[in-house]
Amino acid sequence: MRFRTCLLGGAALAILGACGAYALTLRSSMAAITPPSQASFDKVTVEKGAILAAIADCTVCHTAPGGEPFAGGLPLKTPFGTLYSTNITPEETTGVGSWSLEAFKRAMREGVDRQGDYLYPAFPYTHYNHVADDDLAALYAFLMTRRPVKATPPPNDLIPPLGFRPLLAGWNLLFLDEAPFAPAEDQSAEWNRGAYLVEGLGHCGLCHTPLNLAGAEKTSKTFAGGVAEGWTAPPLDASNPNAARWSVDRLTAYLRSGLDAEHGVAAGPMGPVTHGLSTVPEGEVRAIAVYITSKMETGESAQQHGESLPAAKPLDNAEEAAATHQAGAAIFAGACAGCHGTGAPMSSDGRPSLALTTDLAADDPRNTIQTILQGIPELAGQKRPLMPSFAGVFSDRDVAEVTAYLRVRFTDQPAWPNLHDAVVEARNEGEKP
Question: Do the Cβ atoms of 229 and 429 come closer than 8 Å?
């Protein structure tokens, strides 16, 4: 009898403890407001918010293919399942029109929406919590002056039990750094501005830092490189093999144009980033470049003098590549040579030589494969070379063959192993759910 009583008592205490822990995760809802009129926001604040939204890349994640800007519904593939971005237009019932500025700030800094539900950290509140009050107010003003769109995203499709949002309270406890941004006293105002933008609204570390098993950034390896949407995001620290070739001027130009003669064209997730930054005042982008190049400093590098190293000499081992990869050579001649061959008629549009693109010389073939599969789409208002997608034209074997050919022809690096498997993986990663 005593044992049974103790057992029941222990079970009751465990249930009470679980209920108490659950209660601690609950967040209160915040009062709904009537959507503010556009006239209630001054023009200067809205224009400032537009710049900040471009730096934060809001429209990219919150716009579905073919959908209305900021209306959400974009599928985001993660190792834990698929998330769909939310509607952040000022529509009252499905968007954020009923959100007060304080509700907006809570979401941006704590990852909790107006109703008290936790947001998934694919939304980078882990970076946005470093943003100053006046900038959050400007971003709020910008969003509240967009066209309201009534749209509800599809339900998230996550591995059980990750759809239970209160679990994110524990994630935040472990990984959410609530410390405000602190300028470095030994750095210039321009450097500090760049640090503020990169670490905050720019959330660059979310892609360019490896993630742990819980999907949080490994803070001990900040900017050491990562993976985003099936693409490799290169290191932004001294481990970047091309660090010494990035001067402040060169990186500024690349971030605003999406093009560099010794790097290539910004593709994959980086394409929209440079498209957004092309609308941002040059001084802001330059500050970002100042901060990032400082992270890539490698001792007595050319960056310290504001100049890049002499141009690399392009290789073209056409005969060797054709002899060792006949199938790849045939595919290149039929589908690629018109733009990328020696003296190609379409090479006059500023298209970088393949021999100088960093992706072909990288240790991982992922970005080369994804570029072949997905191409480089047109981005309105940005003049840069385009490339069609070959995902529906080339088989996995075709992509592997031409990738192997390109590696031999245009680099002096060793062959990539297991290319067919890498193509299959890249194709799966790049497909939309």
Answer: yes
**pLDDT at residue 196, rounded to an integer:** 98
| Domain of residue 268, residue span | 189-305
Instruction: Please tell me the predicted confidence (pLDDT) of residue 9.
Output: 41
* Cβ neighbour number for residue 374 with a 10 Å cutoff: 23
Distance CA 41, CA 52 (A): 16
Let me know whether 86 and 142 are in one domain: yes
263 and 342 fall within a common domain = no
Give pLDDT tens digits for 138-147.
Answer: 999 999 999 9
Closest to 339 in 3D by CA, of 412, 411, 413, 265? 265
Q: Which residues contact 15 (CB under 8 A, 6 or more apart)?
A: none
What pLDDT sits at residue 15? 41
Q: Are residues 165 and 202 in the same domain?
A: no
Question: Which parts of 257-314 are beta strand (E)?
Answer: 259-260, 264-265
pLDDT of residue 352: 78
The answer as to whether 23 is a domain residue is no
Question: What is the rounded distance in angstroms from the CA atom of residue 225 to the CA atom of residue 239?
Answer: 9
Check whether 335 has a pLDDT greater than 80. Answer: yes
DSSP per residue over 112-166, as a string? B-TTSPBPPTTS-HHHHTTS-HHHHHHHHHHHHTSPP----PPPPEE-TTTT-TT
Is residue 78 helix, strand or coil?
strand
Q: How far is CA 54 from CA 23, 88, 268, in A?
A: 38, 15, 17
Q: Are residues 362 and 265 in the same domain?
A: no
Q: What is the pLDDT of residue 310?
A: 54
Residues 237 and 206 in one domain: yes
Mean pLDDT for the chain overall: 90
Is 323 domain-assigned?
Answer: yes
Instruction: Kindly compute the dihedral angle of the four CA atoms of residues 90, 94, 96, 98, in this order, to the nearest 10 degrees.
Output: 90
User: Are the C-beta atoms of residues 403 and 423 closer than 8 Å to each other?
Assistant: yes
199 belongs to a structural domain: yes
Same domain, 287 and 355: no
Number of domains in the chain: 3
Tell me: do 115 and 230 sit in the same domain.
no
Residue 260's DSSP bridge partners are 264
Q: Is 221 helix (H, G, I), strand (E, B) or coil?
A: helix
Do 349 and 300 share a structural domain? no
Distance (Å, whole) CA 282 – CA 113 = 33
